[in-house]
Here is the input.
Amino acid sequence: MDFASDNASGADPKILAALVAANGGSFPAYGADPYTARAEKMLCDLFERDCSVFFLATGTGANALALAALTPPWGAIFCHEDAHVMDDECGAPEFFSAGAKMVGLPGYKGKIAPDVLRETLAAYPRGLIKQVQPASLSVSQANECGALYSIDEIAALCEIAHAADVKVHMDGARFANALVSMGCTPAQMTWKAGVDVLSFGATKNGTLACEAVVFFDKTLAEDFDYRRKRGGHLLSKGRLLGAQMIAYLEDAHWLGLARRANESARKMADMLATIEGVRIPWTPEANELFVIMPGRMDAALKAAGARYYDWGARGLRDAEKPTADEVFVRLVTSFATRDFEIERFVEIAGASSPA
Amino acid sequence: MDFASDNASGADPKILAALVAANGGSFPAYGADPYTARAEKMLCDLFERDCSVFFLATGTGANALALAALTPPWGAIFCHEDAHVMDDECGAPEFFSAGAKMVGLPGYKGKIAPDVLRETLAAYPRGLIKQVQPASLSVSQANECGALYSIDEIAALCEIAHAADVKVHMDGARFANALVSMGCTPAQMTWKAGVDVLSFGATKNGTLACEAVVFFDKTLAEDFDYRRKRGGHLLSKGRLLGAQMIAYLEDAHWLGLARRANESARKMADMLATIEGVRIPWTPEANELFVIMPGRMDAALKAAGARYYDWGARGLRDAEKPTADEVFVRLVTSFATRDFEIERFVEIAGASSPA
Amino acid sequence: MDFASDNASGADPKILAALVAANGGSFPAYGADPYTARAEKMLCDLFERDCSVFFLATGTGANALALAALTPPWGAIFCHEDAHVMDDECGAPEFFSAGAKMVGLPGYKGKIAPDVLRETLAAYPRGLIKQVQPASLSVSQANECGALYSIDEIAALCEIAHAADVKVHMDGARFANALVSMGCTPAQMTWKAGVDVLSFGATKNGTLACEAVVFFDKTLAEDFDYRRKRGGHLLSKGRLLGAQMIAYLEDAHWLGLARRANESARKMADMLATIEGVRIPWTPEANELFVIMPGRMDAALKAAGARYYDWGARGLRDAEKPTADEVFVRLVTSFATRDFEIERFVEIAGASSPA
Amino acid sequence: MDFASDNASGADPKILAALVAANGGSFPAYGADPYTARAEKMLCDLFERDCSVFFLATGTGANALALAALTPPWGAIFCHEDAHVMDDECGAPEFFSAGAKMVGLPGYKGKIAPDVLRETLAAYPRGLIKQVQPASLSVSQANECGALYSIDEIAALCEIAHAADVKVHMDGARFANALVSMGCTPAQMTWKAGVDVLSFGATKNGTLACEAVVFFDKTLAEDFDYRRKRGGHLLSKGRLLGAQMIAYLEDAHWLGLARRANESARKMADMLATIEGVRIPWTPEANELFVIMPGRMDAALKAAGARYYDWGARGLRDAEKPTADEVFVRLVTSFATRDFEIERFVEIAGASSPA
Here is the structure.
């Protein structure tokens, strides 16, 4: 019953098998191998565009390097105030950008509203020397509250950003989960809506360690090779990343993995919703489920070995917030979540229901 | 016939199998898994000391983070002028240290002589505000010329460094190859001789991607968790690193792999030495072999598909340098080098010998 | 009628004369001159404590270097969301700290409330690796809204900060104006209340360019010499700074200058308050005066050549905010403000009053 | 008898008087004052070109900011191994460039030879990802050994640099001394020979604290305003810098000051050369004089209160080096050096001559 994070599991077996199959033979190091080349080609095909693609092993590296490529040291990076890049990467964007300023924007359910972005940008006029200069916007799809931006919402944010000469980064740590939920194409959810660079996550959805930074505007990627090398993120045995990515993308395998994770979240939500005392403020849109439950239910679940994170009251409106007797928790499902884990969780929750 | 680098191969099969075996089950992310814990314990046992151990995926990350932990932004990092940290990491130490100065020392065969270190340190007096302050020394074992420092030599450098309040880092990208050649214990080659922190490489010697930073002085490691996270080098699925390292160390597997690589280098040297026109300036001490050969021999080998790097005249004394008709090349053997590759290489070389 | 800023004037004549008097003779460069030494001594005497004192030419340099001395790259700097260090220094604290994160706290009239600080610190638990670590708190005295913290308020913030192992920096760009208004000693307003390091401003109050960073805890200053040199803030002809500071402090000259500036602000407030249509939301506590006035009064003043800044609605409660027909402006008086400027300003304002 | 440095004196009286004269009135802060504007215009006129000009208070700030504007974090800055930017600024270029690598080139008398530059650049091929990328060359005019590059030599270095897409910075801390010695125009010594950006020093030659960064290629200056502000180098009372620079340049005052300094050096050299036991390896080309003298002469001079620096054996050929009984010292003259100081120095030297 591990709902702590979608990186609690190992790799999907098919992807792991591909890694093993790629082990033989001798290839040039540092990404000059055929696995890397093929994986790059597959991503360009997937996005229906000639992109600049870079693989690395961590999402923090991908996000921070991508933002650094968009943002000078005297620039501002705009993002939601609860975004992963803001709170959960120990200042990696500040580090890789040589000291840019992160500006957190408020917003319900982890989402930035167009008006809030517009007003914030107005407070950072271009050319005012005493202030950091607007440089980049980072949006998470799906975000920290498991919510999605619609294509129109993405397009609206990108339009406002671009009008201020601000580039747009999408943190796609859960890109696959968002995509299958949206039912659109990868291109529609990114560059066709205005996104300039994407952190294309694969680790949470079935690889062991594999992320891609995808630049839709190749001119933004000109220095990225040096940034990645200098950051220690160019792996010597590049096939490790290339082979994982190929197996991940091949035959739409990644979409199947994401679908399974999303379905688990929806199923779990439906089952928990029937239990008295449980409140589900937000219908799960991807593979994260947020639940308000009685404190003794939480205690019973933890006593039974269930793993998940307390979420405080982050993202909730005042009226939605937990009472003193309740806790607000995050449950994450993944490609590896099994039905019996969900059923057991629901069973224990039901047994400790006040009803 | 790939002698370009010891990271041209994939992983050793036993290590890969262990990675596959570790795939099942659910564990806390970010290094809080039992594989990581066990691998840390094994390294402490190996070094006969309670160390602070950190795993990551790249040697550049390991070296740069380790040096940053020893060096303030206004500090000097002393190393050989041809060291990997100086020339081959695109400024990673400068990046991770927030702008420390790398000071390259000359020396035959990639080695720093005690007198040269002493004189250099004298030129960086403590407390002279206009100058960067002496902070760390990085020595490579084995080094860029495939040479080894004896234990006495390491101890002499460490003593000089410590007398100037300078900490010592060992770049052990080829630690295993050095160790089996020296015939000493890991402790003798490191902290017993005065080394403060070690980049313990495993990728070149049989893992897919796994390095460890080992602090023998634990007080130096207090900030390392933040540095690693902020640098994007904390992998979410920590078992990827832990499982590789366990299999690498278990049953002295790593020493067997290194021995094989070193024997290949020695055998290849012995065979090449019998060919007229071939000069071997330095007896191979680990798994790197440096050869001066006629230009047409080099051309014949490359035409036959042999892969290796031209080495210019780096590290050679004037009297040793190649003539206009000769080239100086580096041949690297590894755990995966097969005898028939060596034999084929020697055969082609012999066939194009001027004799 | 220049009320734009207290750095619109040149130097106070007595200070300028001292600079001229110090011009003769030959002295060691880079701060090893007797003027610097004497000025350091005078500041230690003033603060009744053996401090580490460093002079430089700009407030941005002083603030950013001081915060960098308190904050590692993975640290958080807490300050008011409208603080000068947050908004008006183009990211200097991020630059000098090698990428620390600035965390802005809300608060009425530019002040941080103890509860807000306590709650914010609770959200940055020590040792949580994914998050930047709490490191420093910066409070401005007087602050961006011209408001003062009482000694008890400073002490309360310092106590909360220290309990979380967070060091306290005071931005004293208008230290003198605050001090004479408070009627306490420099020691009471700083280290006796818990402040660890002070940016002691003198430029806005009568010098040409002279600021001091004063460390009450000398152990925090150990690296400051290198930081200042490396930042290009060690002036070669140190007497420029030392001589200004001596004349500034001698015979309590600085307090007289500040008193004059504060009295001008109070007088101007009293006179403006009698004009119909003018609202003064905050009684001036130092030398900054904030005024809500009709738009046509503002237009008339600007047409007559008055200089001052529009302040939007920053710091105001909703009920206090200007209507669509009003503007909210900041008027700064200084040691050089002359009565006739105030009288002329008030006269024009009165003439355009709706009354 | 202070020959330690040309920044041991205060300001030239005429420049100081101009500073005093500029003290009245109220002007916009942060460089938007008429003094700054006029000084900028005068420098453009002087260089016969529309330049981007920025004033600041220190040479370290000027050099480091200028180099940072030319060099990305993964770039290499080439300079002489004894250059001030290399050795005497505590790593300021590394700091302001966010970790670029300084590469020191050897060369007699502090000068870089064209061939050495060409060979060094060849070792930093464009596009080799593992290595920092060639970005900028810094030449000092006059240099650390008091030597000058001829216009042809500057042009040759610039041509080699530009052919490798490397920008050229000139450290002109002693620009005036070099210029009057060369007898050419400022334009000829800089952009007409290929220099892209100049640190135009004035502090050593008569101002209290005033340097200018002059970009001949204005596109390189686009970010400089932010860099300077963020570095804390934008002075609030800009007239301090503008007024000094105007008085410095007006009526060719600066050239007169430099001529006096150079003449003092030449005169001192001529007089010392007649003393037995004194060797002058390099004819002084600007205002620095390097002298090898017997140890007891050195002791006698120091006992009499003479101030100057020991220079080790830096820059000397083996045949020129001091014996065990000799010392090699640097004597710097300035606009403020008085004849009787020189005469007294020579007298004491002569009295302790072994002759």
